[in-house]
Write a structure and sequence with these properties.
- The protein has 19 helices and no strands.
- The protein is globular, with a radius of gyration of 21 Å.
- By secondary structure, the protein is mostly helical.
Length: 446
């Protein structure tokens, strides 16, 4: 593992045993998602994440509608969604050390409180559009800190073996499901009440999430013990992480496939217009990837063992970018939906990446590492969406969308080669088959 003064030594990372939950037990016996839900503290974190995720999606939708009604500007309305991604780079770099320097429960509650206050401020009448967009940026800037801190907390609640991997999987299922449920619920609410009232509802969901985390999770000390200015500590931690070639390789593996995958997704509205399917068809297309992701994530997590899931990591990473090649044939609505569902199934490649990443990262930097991972992924996705829009201004959609797939195949294969050379996939001879804590890595095989 990396030391404060130098790069990492070869070999798996050391890790502490799982922290006892509220019941005092280290963890339940069992397999699959059932074993994860058997941990009472995880159930509360899961419920809080469900509330906050729905709040984020509904807030984005309601704010977009409100800005459009105030300005009649499609550009400013769309900007509300873009501002949900681009500020990630700020929070993920300047604030990343918060995830390990402060007690996790305090960080999570404060982040939810910031989002609740921002949403409540949007409800006030007469708030200028510039202020509304600024409040959206504030919420987005704390999002990677929240995500990284929560991921580090899962390691303490569930341990850093297979339960951690499955817990992360359930968080991803919530993220994808929240897109479907959030847009549906937001649409129904906006049909019944004004956008500002819907924003008031989102403030309530963030508040409920904060209370659930404060009352339902254990108070644990901070993992890190560094002093000094927050900015300096954040940059020092990032430098330390990037000094480890295994961590660098795995960060690339978490960033590159999603950045390519979002290119066709970013162009679905104009593609639906090209097909002449109208708003209903465009909405159906936008549901394709989340549906594929939820189904695949659930099946892979429930039916396959750790070793089988790890073996799928590289094939699914490559497969993620292949369906976009099919848009070269200008598929009809039905076939385009099939391509998008297939793309969504590739999210399961994260099972193996999560396991390798937590083994490669120093325990005291786990929260910051997860923050950097999330910030980089969302920032690159936002940039890829913007570049896709620029390319679509000068080239036909049936050229731009498959071109992303062609470039993506080469990029993902190159990243996989880097991961293999670094040994980050665990292929390190006699050390293969050990968890970060030294126990058996693959207890079961499906």
């Amino acid at each position: 593992m990396p030391t404060p003064s130098g790069p990492a030594r070869p070999g798996p990372a050391a890790a502490c045993p799982p922290a006892p939950g509220p019941s005092g037990a280290a963890g339940p016996a069992g397999k699959g998602y059932r074993a994860v839900f058997a941990v009472p503290e995880f159930r509360r974190v899961f419920a809080a994440h469900l509330l906050s995720s729905l709040g984020v999606v509904v807030c984005e939708l309601a704010l977009s509608v409100l800005v459009y009604r105030l300005t009649d500007s499609p550009l400013l309305s769309a900007l509300t969604f873009a501002l949900g991604l681009l500020p990630y780079v700020v929070g993920g770099t300047l604030l990343s050390a918060v995830a390990d320097r402060c007690p996790a429960r305090r960080v999570l509650v404060c982040c939810d409180a910031v989002c609740a206050v921002a949403a409540a401020a949007m409800v006030l009448p007469g708030v200028p559009v510039a202020v509304l967009l600024g409040l959206r940026c504030v919420s987005a800037a704390v999002a990677p800190v929240f995500a990284g801190t929560r991921a580090g907390t899962l390691g303490e609640i569930l341990g850093e073996g297979d339960l951690f991997v499955l817990g992360r999987s359930l968080i991803r299922i919530v993220n994808q499901g929240a897109q479907l449920a959030g847009f549906a619920a937001g649409g129904l609410l906006l049909a019944a009440v004004a956008p500002r009232a819907v924003l008031g509802v989102t403030a309530a969901t963030f508040t409920a999430s904060a209370l659930l985390l404060w009352l339902g999770t254990a108070a644990r000390p901070a993992r890190g013990h560094g002093g000094g200015a927050l900015l300096g500590a954040s940059m020092a931690g990032i430098r330390r992480l990037l000094a480890d070639r295994r961590v660098r390789a795995l960060l690339l593996l978490t960033w590159v496939p999603p950045a390519v995958v979002v290119v066709p997704e970013a162009l679905l509205v104009p593609y639906g217009d090209l097909l002449g399917v109208g708003p209903a068809g465009q909405g159906l297309l936008m549901c394709g990837m989340p549906v594929g992701a939820v189904v695949a994530e659930t099946l892979v997590g429930a039916l396959l063992g750790p070793r089988a899931r790890e073996r799928l990591t590289f094939p699914l990473g490559v497969f993620a970018v292949l369906p976009s090649l099919g848009f070269a044939a200008r598929p009809s609505l039905g076939w385009a939906l099939v391509l998008l569902v297939l793309t969504g199934t590739s999210i399961s490649y994260n099972f193996g990446v999560d396991r390798w990443f937590v083994a490669a990262v120093p325990e005291e930097l786990l929260g910051q590492a997860m923050t950097v991972m999330q910030a980089g992924r969302m920032t690159l996705m936002g940039l890829a969406m913007a570049l896709a829009g620029v390319a679509a201004q000068y080239a036909p959609l049936p050229v731009v969308m498959p071109a992303a797939g062609v470039l993506g195949v080469g990029a993902v294969l190159a990243v996989i080669a880097v991961v293999r050379r670094s040994g980050a996939d665990g292929d390190r001879g006699p050390e293969r088959g050990r968890t970060p804590s030294g126990g058996p890595l693959h207890e079961t095989e499906s």
